[in-house]
Specification:
Blueprint (H helix, E strand, L loop, with lengths): L2 H8 L3 H8 L7 H14 L5 H8 L4 E6 L5 H16 L3 E6 L4 H13 L4 E5 L5 H10 L3 E4 L8 E6 L1 H14 L4 E6 L5 H17 L4 E6 L4 H13 L6 E4 L2 H13 L9 E3 L6 H4 L6 E3 L2 H12 L12 E4 L2 E3 L10
Parallel strand pairs: 1-2, 1-3, 3-4, 4-5, 5-11, 6-7, 6-8, 8-9
Antiparallel strand pairs: 10-12
Helix pairs in contact: 1-2, 1-3, 5-13, 8-9, 10-11
Length: about 325
């Protein structure tokens, strides 16, 4: 089935059909309806790769994330996908499972597909990959890695401020026996939260103690990290988790051990994904606006975006503390 047949059936030119399929706003709604009806009846599927070659530009955006099991990454992707669909773009998705070799393979695969731009919402970025992408001049968005400028847009969350808010809040509740649950401590953007915790505790409550455990970025990883903490001595009064996913796993492990949250142990997360409001007890966490991150990705990479002046800039997101039921006064 060809573009010409769609044009003949709908009584318009091939150029008009192309504008409709590309989401151009200048086409009348009645004409759009007629063209889309013809597309449906003829079961026409446009050759998107050929279209991008003929037009001299791609209408595909690539998104690479570290862990699709973590709703944080899925929420960012969905925001990008929503904008892509609204503006006639395709979106390609790859998951690295925090493996730098998979990140490299995914980047090269997407560049081979001639994407219009590429977003790397990952923590495992290496300097050599950053240098290669900077030299490629492909529009890029980095999350928490790299340096903004030229073809590189950087989105950075002020994790340090988010951790400070948590520590200040817990200190006000009398907590001095703390534990931190993390994952992939060798990756700088993730380990930043652990470093921020120790720095803030030194200032806010220098007589506090901190135990650290790390496991996989998963629900089960959160449970296993709690087991490690509780096997290493007296239970802390508060557990600070690197993200909500591990915090939800931690809550389940504490509940199954008969420990009450927050009466026995307070628990905090980070990200404020949807489940944190509905788990039991509802999770005190730090809100990161994933939709804003996704929309910034699209406006920075879409070649016909009205906000293409965002390319090459750095965006800093200030997190907000969200207090719910999983935190309370320190026991005893």
């Amino acid at each position: 089935m060809s573009l010409e047949e769609v044009a003949r059936k709908s009584g318009v030119s091939t150029a008009t059909v192309s504008r409709v399929l590309n989401g151009v706003d200048s086409v009348k709604s009645s004409t759009k309806s007629r063209v889309m009806k013809a597309v449906s009846e003829l079961k026409y599927h446009p050759n998107l790769h050929a279209r991008s070659l003929a037009g001299g530009r791609s209408r595909t955006i690539g998104v690479i994330v570290s862990n699709l099991d973590n709703p944080f990454f899925l929420d960012v992707y969905r925001a990008v996908e929503e904008d892509c669909h609204s503006h006639g773009y395709e979106v390609l998705l790859a998951n690295t499972a925090y493996r730098s070799e998979q990140l490299t393979a995914s980047i090269r695969l997407m560049m081979g597909r001639r994407v219009a731009g590429l977003a790397a919402i990952v923590s495992e970025m290496e300097d050599s990959i950053v240098d290669e992408l900077t030299e490629s001049r492909l529009p890029m968005v980095f999350y928490d890695v790299g340096t903004a400028g030229g073809n590189i847009t950087k989105i950075r969350v002020n994790y340090r401020r988010g951790v400070e808010r948590i520590v200040e809040y817990l200190a006000a509740l009398g907590h001095k026996q703390l534990a931190f649950i993390g994952h992939h401590a060798v990756l700088g953007p993730i380990d930043e939260r652990r470093r921020a915790l120790f720095d803030t505790v030194q200032v806010v409550c220098p007589d506090a103690t901190i135990r650290v455990a790390a496991d996989a970025d998963s629900l089960e990883g959160g449970r296993q990290a709690v087991r490690e903490i509780l096997s290493g001595g007296p239970a802390p009064t508060a557990i600070i988790c690197v993200n909500d996913l591990m915090a939800v796993g931690a809550l389940k492990e504490l509940r199954e051990r008969g420990l009450r949250v927050p009466q026995d142990i307070s628990v905090t997360g980070f990200d404020n994904f949807r489940l944190s409001e509905f788990c039991y007890p509802a999770l005190t966490t730090v809100h990161i606006p994933r939709d804003r991150i996704g929309h910034t990705v699209f406006t920075s990479l879409a070649t016909d975006s009205k906000d293409t002046n965002t390319l090459g800039k750095e965006f800093v997101i200030e997190p907000e503390l969200v207090v719910r039921d999983s935190t309370g006064a320190a026991r005893g």
